[in-house]
Design goal:
By secondary structure, the chain is an alpha+beta fold. The protein contains three helices and nine strands; from the N terminus they run E-E-H-E-H-E-E-H-E-E-E-E.
């Protein structure tokens, strides 16, 4: 028969629960994983007051994160960016436009640094054309950026356009 212990989660743990929940877990799971990696604290009267302080700090952090995301989304909405890539004459690119390319162009135009993981590409961009790019920021804040992909036809050394 294994012993169980009550813990309070201070981070979301997949398959167990989310921030603030009190759970009863096996002693080994708590001692070897949850406590050392700071996913949880023991559910004791002293830790309950510590948890309340953590909860207030987390609420403030979430509010600040939401405000920052809203401000960033406001500055990104309606932004039009242009990326030039080498392309074949039929409009297909030699490579593709990646989220890193989009982030670099946003930084060049606006001076805003965003994480490339916030850029959501439903498919690889391998054709010249116009695209609406979704930016998903923390706290479920969204913005849309207009992307124009322009093809630059590569010329060979003899001066003729390559095919």
């Amino acid at each position: 028969m294994s012993k169980e212990i009550d813990i309070v989660l201070i981070k979301d743990v997949k398959g167990l629960g989310s921030f603030g929940q009190t759970k009863s877990v096996k002693l080994g799971y708590a001692r070897n994983y949850l406590l050392p990696y700071e996913f949880a604290i023991l559910s004791t009267p002293a830790n309950q007051s510590r948890f309340k302080a953590l909860q207030k700090r987390e609420q403030k952090r979430l509010v600040q994160e939401k405000e920052n995301s809203e401000a960033l989304a406001t500055s990104l909405r309606g932004l039009s960016i242009k990326v030039t890539e080498l392309a074949h004459e039929d409009g297909t690119l030699f490579g593709s436009v990646s989220s890193a390319d989009i982030v670099a162009e946003i930084k060049k135009i606006k001076g805003i640094d965003i994480d490339r993981h916030f850029v959501v590409l439903s498919e690889n961009i391998k054709l010249v054309g116009e695209y609406a790019i979704n930016i998903e920021l923390p706290q479920q804040v969204h913005a849309q950026v207009n992307l124009s992909v322009v093809g630059e036809v590569k010329e060979s050394r003899s001066g003729k356009k390559s095919k």
